[in-house]
Amino acid sequence: MSEGAAKKEEKPRKFQAIRGTRDLLPPETALWNRVEQTAHQVFATFGFGEIRPPIFEATELFARSVGSETDIVSKEMYTFVDRSEKLEPQPVIGSMDVFLQRVKQLYKSGEIPHDEIGLELVEKQWKKVDDLLKGASSIESGAIEIYELIMLFEALRLGGDVSLRPEATASVCRAYIEHGMQSLPAPVKLYYMGPMFRRERPQKGRYRQFYQIGAEVLGGSDAPAIDAEVIEMVVLFFDRLELQGVQLDINSIGHSADNCRRGYVEKLKAALDKVKDKLGPDSQRRIETNPLRVLDSKLESEQAIIATLPRIADHLCEDCAAHYAAVKHQLEMRGVIYRENWRLVRGLDYYMRTTFEITAQGLGSQNAVCGGGRYDGLVELLGGPPTKGIGFAIGEDRLILSLQESGKAPAMQGRDVYIAWMGERAHATAIRAAKDLRKAGFSVELPPVEQKFGKALGQADKLGAKHALILGDNEVFEGLWTLKTLADGSQAKFTEADLLEYLRKSESLSS
Ligand code: HAM
User: Fold this and answer.
1) I need a labelling partner for 37 at 20 to 30 A (CA). Which of 10, 48, 173, 322 fits?
2) Residue 223, SS3 per DSSP
3) Which carries the bigger pLDDT value, residue 414 or residue 191?
């Protein structure tokens, strides 16, 4: 059978978007654009500039910052090996020394990342195999050593683990260090928007590819006014979008030194150990891995027990308590309404002191539309200088869902003008008219083939066009074009110049 015939017999597979991912389609994308446009505008008024970090980074970056024990890093990342195409597979063991030379060259020129340990292991093993083969009568006697060498070589060739970003704070801190932004006037204020990836169980408001709009303030001081201003900015942004049912929760989780969070976590763990039997398996596991996360539990049966646990506010050190009190005062000065929530601990390891979360209406169980907090020390943890940091990320999918639930969805995007044309001469005029109208900013539908006027008007109606411009041979000959207003069926004749003027006027009246 020929290849073509075989292809024909194959049943075509229907492809679908992968579970947890989705297509964003018009007219909904118009709302996405409006939200993003508003973010650009509002954030710029607070002096933030946009950063666009890459979508994948070294896995290690997220493990170190978000925390290797967190659900995000331990269970939810899309991780893969970034095969280094510069290092071809080596078919012959005998050419290993040539290969090693090549690796060293590539390290030197910076074309592939250094893996000194991997290289040393390959070199050692290569020498071992070489010695063994020198004294051996057949290659079989060194089979295991050769196999080990091939494995080590493969590990070296495969290069580093990379992951699709589950969040962007780590990337922003990496970029801050990489571009020496500590030498810029402090604080550096950056914002971003784009897709993030977490392999969570999909449900309403929870996706595996979702979108965040976030902002980070890096460097300078940790003045409570900075915390408050960042929160004020999100609240203002939500206000501008007329998001309904906005509720801001704040907390302070202290810092990691002995007399503050560490002391509290010990007390919390001791209290949890006493009630362990009454908790579910998830919370039982968390007592060992991350006791603070037990406070996040939404399990009905655990709520009464959690209410009796020690509270962090009672264990903050003096500095953290003063910082928290000042943040609250600064929020009040800005007229930002908040609720204190001692159970707000957040699921990422890098936080300290201020944490906050915002919920909105119409979202069901996944109602957190924004989360953030302070993360002094994260930049240092990633190899940079000691740096203060605070920021937030908004779940854009959830923000859109909530806006839609409260009736803020835009209607289907119609057309300003549908050009109904008939005849060769009219076609040329229609093309010119379309060009001029689009140049003036009107949205125009120009049918590619001739249609009877009746059919064209039906089509214009279906597309939700405001006007139909009727161009037949008569109109072209007279230089007077007929414009039909579809809402009321009224019709009038215009010269080309008058038509533009008329449309402009009716546009400004309706907007
Ligand atoms: P996060 O709380 O993990 O924080 O995520 C922030 C927001 O992203 C959540 O409140 C939620 O609206 C949205 N989100 C998270 N996961 C999903 C999902 N699977 N589907 C839909 N939306 C989701 C962070 O990511 C931190 N980087 C925030 C931050 C910035 N903290 C300081 N700076």
Assistant:
1) 173
2) coil
3) 191
HSE-CB at 282 with a 13 A cutoff on CA atoms is 12
Question: Is any atom of ligand 1 closer than 6 Å to the C-beta of 371?
Answer: yes
State how far the Cα of 21 lies from the Cα of 18, in Å rounded to an integer: 6
Is 290's C-beta closer than 6 angstroms to any atom of ligand 1?
no
Q: Is the minimum distance from the CB of 210 to ligand 1 under 6 angstroms?
A: yes
**Does the beta carbon of 403 sit less than 6 angstroms from any atom of ligand 1?**
no
Q: Give the pair of three-digit tokens for residue 429.
A: 């005029």
CA atoms of 193 and 393, how far apart (whole Å) = 9
Amino acid at 216: E
Helix (H, G, I), strand (E, B) or coil at 491: strand
What local confidence, expressed as pLDDT, does residue 126 receive?
84
pLDDT band at residue 3 using 50, 70 and 90 as cut-offs:
low
Distances (CA, A) of 483 to 95, 134, 229, 497: 78, 93, 52, 13
By DSSP bridging, strand 247-252 and strand 188-197 are: unpaired
* 172 vs 189: CA distance, rounded Å: 10
Is-contact 410 368, C-beta < 8 A?
A: no
The residue whose CA has the least distance to atom 11 of ligand 1 is 395
- Residue 474 tokens read as 């008569």
Asked whether residue 409 carries a pLDDT value surpassing 90, the answer given is no
Tokens at 271, concatenated: 């209290």
Q: Report the percent of the chain where pLDDT is more than 90.
A: 70
Residues 6+ apart with CB under 8 A from 72: 62, 66, 166, 167, 198, 347, 348
Contacts of 167 (CB under 8 A, 6+ apart): 62, 66, 72, 196, 212, 214, 348, 393
Helices assigned H by DSSP within 209-280: 224-240, 263-275
Q: Are 135 and 141 contacting, i.e. CB atoms less than 8 angstroms apart?
A: no
Rg (the chain; Cα; Å):
31
User: pLDDT value at position 139?
Assistant: 63
